[in-house]
Structures are given as C-alpha cells and as structure tokens.
Amino acid sequence: MSVEHTQTAPRSALPVTPLDPAGTDPFAWLEDVDGDTALGWVRERNAHSAEALGGTDFAATELAVREVLDSDDKIPHVSKVGSHYYNFWQDAEHQRGLWRRATLESYRTDDPEWETVLDLDALAAQEGESWVWHGASVLRPTPEQLAAGEPRRHALVDLSPGGSDSDVTREFDLVTKQFVPESDGGFVRAQAKGGMSWVDSETVYVYTDFGAGTMTPSGYPRQVKRWRRGTPLAEAALVYEGTEQDMSISASRSHTPGFERDLVHRALRFYANETYLATGVGTADQTLTKIDVPDSANVGLHREWMLVRLRDDWVLGDTTYRAGSLLATGFDDFMAGSRDLTVLFEPTPTTSLAGITWTRNHLVLNVLDDVKNLLHVLTPPSSPSSPSAAGTAGWVRSELPVGGELLTVGVGAVDVIDSDDVWVVTTGYLTPSTLGLTTVGAPRPSAPEVLKSAPSYFEAAGLAVRQRFTESDDGTRVPYFVVGRADRVEGEAGPAPTLLWGYGGFEHAILPGYSGTVGRAWLERGGVYAVANIRGGGEYGPAWHQAALKQHRHRAYEDFAAVARDLVASGVTVPAQLGMEGRSNGGLLAGNMLTRYPELFGAIIVGVPLLDMKRYSHLLAGASWMAEYGDPDSDEWEFLQTFSPYHLFDAARDYPPVLFTTSTKDDRVHPGHARKMAALMLAADKDVTYYENIEGGHGGAANNAQAAYMAATHWTFLWNRLSS
Questions:
Q1: What predicted TM-score, i.e. pTM, was given to this entire model?
Q2: From the CB of residue 76, how many other CB atoms can be counted at a distance below 10 Å?
Q3: Which DSSP category does 311 fall into?
Q4: If exposure means fewest CB atoms within 10 Å of the residue's CB, which of 181, 441, 445, 597 is most exposed?
Q5: Which residues are part of the catalytic machinery?
C-alpha cells in the first residue's frame, strides 16, 4: 500500500523500524489538522475503509445501532430547575437535539407533555453552524426574588461547533425562550476553551482566551475575570491570574441561601489544585484565602460543611489520614484554624469511594467493594461545633436499599438546596437502565419508586454475566467482567469471537452498564464481551490509579495482557478470535497491546488515541496530562519511550489487523496521533483500516447518524476479522 501524499523519502527509505525520536518525523505533515494534503490523505483512507467494510452486514449493523440511538423509549434524564424538569433529547427527527422541559407530574406519566425551550437543529440551520450541545447553567433567584414570584430566566448555554472542546457561551432567556442579544446587554463568550458562571443576574465570572499570554500550555484559561452586564469584556475586572505553568483557572459562586461564597479554582496539573475563598471580589478590598488542604485533595462545600477527599496520605500532628479517605469539618471553623476532622470513609483493600452526593440534610456515599456498589446515607450533627460532631459518632449512618448482583447504581440529588430527594439509576450488562426517585434520611428507607425504565434492545435469554479475577505479572489481583452466552462465558462451548475493552487511566472506574449497541451488534451474534478493570483506573481508589502512573505505566498493560491470557486459558476464546478496543487513554492502551503484545490478539481497535508520546505534550491539551504519563522533554523520556507505540513499532514484526478511528474536530487528543501511526504502519504494508469523522470532537460523533456509522465501522471490522 502506498502513501501518495508523503512529501518525504520513498517508502523503501522510510525509517519504519523503529522511528528515531531524535530524527525527522516522516509523517509530521499529518499533524496539520485542516491542511489540504493531510485531509486528502484522510479522504483516501476513509474511502478505503468504506470500500473494505461496506456491504449488507455493515448496513444492517448501522441500522440496528441507529434504532437504539434514535429510540423514543430511552429514559429522558432530567435536571430540576424551579418547578420544571429539563431534559436534552436527541432522536431521528432531532439529530442536533432539543432542550425541553416538563412538570414533575407530567414527567411521571408514560407520555410527558414536553415544552421545547431550544431546538438545536433549527438553530444550526438558521445560523449555518453544526452546533453540538455542551450544557446549560441556570441562575437560582435570590430568596427575595423567589418570594416576589420572579421566574428563573437567566441561563448560560454552551454550544460547540462540530463537537470540539472549545465552545461558545451565550445568555438565554428561559421566559422568552430566546438568546439575549449582545446588543441588549446579553453575555456572549467567543469560541475558546473556557466558560462562564453566574455571580448574580447582572454579573458573571468569565474564564476564556483574553488574548496573547492568557492561555496555559494545555490550552485552557489562566485568567478569570468578573464581568458586569452592559460593559465591554475588555473592561472586566481581573480576579485571579495563574502562572504560565498552570493547567487552568476558573471561579464560581455558591448560591445556597445563607451560605453564598465565591471560590477561585486553580488547577496546577491533574491531581493537584488549589481552591481559594474570595471575599470583596471586584472591590479594592478583594482577598483570596487559600483553603489549606493538600494540593492533591479535592474540596467540596455544602452549607456549613467542608468535605476533603484525599488522594495521598495527609499527616496532621500525630494523625495520619489515609489516601482514599473522606473527611468532614466545619468550613468556618477550619478557615479559623481548627483542624478537627471526622473520617467519614476510609478505604480497605477491596473498597473505594466511587462518589458522594449531598442532599439538603444528608450525604450519600457510593462505595465500590470489588467493583460492586454499596450505598450509605450519613446524617451530620446539627452543627459542626456541637459536642456530638467530634468523631464518627456525630454522623448517623443508614443504608439505602438499592442495587443487585453485578449492577451499577448511580445517585444524584434532585435539588441539593431544598430537598432530600435523590434520583437513583441502576444498570447492568444485561439489565436495562431504570430511573427511580426516593427520599434519603427517612425513618424507614424504602426502595426507590421507579419512574422510568429503558426497554430491552436485545434478547438476553441464555446470556450470562460473570465477574472473574486473574493475576498480573507482579501477582496483583485484577478483576474483569465477561458477558455472553452462558456456555461460552463458562468456556464450555469452544472459543468464540471476543472483544476485550479497557481504559486504565486518570482514576476512572469502568463499571457494568447496559448497551443496546453492544447487545445488538455483538452479543446477539454470538460474540463475547469482556471488560478489564486494570490499574490506572479508579476501581480501588487512588492507590489503584497511582500504581500505573508514569514509570509504572507498564503495570496497566501487564494487567490487560493477563486478562487476555485468562480469557484464553478459561476456554472463552483463542488469540485469533480475541479482539480489544480502547479509546483516548484507552487508545494508548490499545496501541501498547498492538506493539507490545501483538501475539495475544486477532484484531485491535485504536480510538481517538495518544500514540506519539514524544510529541503528545506539544499537541493540543497534551501538556495537561504530564502528571499521568511524564514529561518527554526531560529525563522521563527514558521510561516514556517504553510505552510510546509510535516508537515501538517494528516493521519486521507481525501485527494483528488494526482499525484506527479519530475525529478532525478532536481538539483534546490530536488526530495526528492516529494519522501518523496508521501511515507508519501502512508504509510497512501492515493490515490497517482507518476512519476519521470530520465532526464529533473527542467523542468521535456529533449526532446519532455519525455515531451509528462509527459503531458499524467498529463492529463490522471486528466481526470480519474474528469470526472466520
């Protein structure tokens, strides 16, 4: 296969085995995202992909996936805003989506009466822009405004052209259901990475690209300003400016009545941040006071309470608070110098804290025990300074009876200011999602009232889910899930086409969840689906994540390879029928499986990946990930090159067929990673399929049609390669 657009040496002279990181990159021209030559190469590869994978099987898979994505029976998840419940919805008729609202009474019914607030398809057609929804923030009226019956009308809507991370913010009036023109004093932020947040109805915090020198090396804002309505953005008052080495800067205000606070957030890097209490903002007496906790800790405020979630051990006097713990204290007392802390959660070898949710009066802890959810409700004492507040005895603990075997449970507050109601979502690999509503802290907690249930999109009879454990190279116990026909999951029916999926990074836990796409495109055809909970993720808290940072990255790859071997050893599959897929950081995982363990797999999908670890920190948001991977411009390149697939590739080795996918609009992970690796392998006559979507950002697709095409590309490639 030739590389017609290469403006370098002929193929026979290309340094394809291996690349010299100190030499000239023969495919650097593919980093020119929108360059004519690079896009010509992309179009050629896309045409090859369409020709290689197209046909009746592809069309049937695309249709099956599209029916799931466009289904009117999906659960319309909502957010409470005043007396209305807002939902963003996409279907066949509304590809870009509808922002809409209903009352709770109507939402409880099988056919809610939705009122359209904003039609993104109509807006995109009107403005000639491929808008993708990025969310909205609605200002809570003051108690005085609520008492006077004033409606909630002030919203900030974030829209992205084509799905990129960079977006615009525009003020929207929820009463007139129109954008507020800039000429009428409406707040408008031009396209950039950043955002705005409400201070009050006349003021916002804005953090964005203010011009030369105002963005960090990661491409995020390093200034936040306070902007008054009706004044030019250029005159907005500077609140805080970070250094050139910071990752990002932002600010926000808590609007809880009686506990209004302004906070400035400084992200030094991933896993290191500072939070400041800001007083007198916009005046000569402005003061920023750092909340004195470790930089690696996360801080959360709720009414009079402060929670501290630790990533590392914290030594205070004679006490050591363990990494992974959750601590509570009175915020005002802490700022005044008190260090009386209550341990609300401390991890064990098998448990970690998956999430926390405040309601008006209670705190819900979502705990993972060997990657299975347990829910605890904690009720704080009447005040942080009450005698009962010292020690865990001051917090009353109860359980929330939710869940089931191998089900994932998610909890979210309905209204954190005024209510103790929570949404409860349950899902599993073979169990469609349900949305329930319950009140926490009740004397006799009961199972949630089920409001909505998603339909079954595939036949689950005869299928089974199993959780298994295997041992990595260093003896670490690694869990994984297997889904498929019961006899195949047990290894009794002979090897089957199997897809192993993984991520293993950024302390992100991969939990069971229902996917109509996986069911229709893979499980119904007899395929087996497996998910590996490898180190680098968050399944066992920060220690599980930190075990695979930087020079220890190889542990994540050894864990994944151990799961692959265990699938073969247990009779589920054989290497020729075992595929794997990873996206983003998981794409780096996939690239390392390709170059380090090619003998374990029959096909590999590498999605929106990092692959060139010599260049990654200079491409788009890459500099923000050096705390995860390391700095390639320092001595850390010595270990980085051991997991840089672009430099590990060896033309003399045999590799399984590989599919690379990315998006031209991905402004988080540069599409050059996938482009260059594909071109390098093609130059060595390897079996490479490549597809790049023009829209979609890091998610890969901007609407359901694109998502269905992308999914059909993935599943058709896998089935063609693994089923024969």
A1: 0.93
A2: 18
A3: S
A4: 181
A5: 584, 698
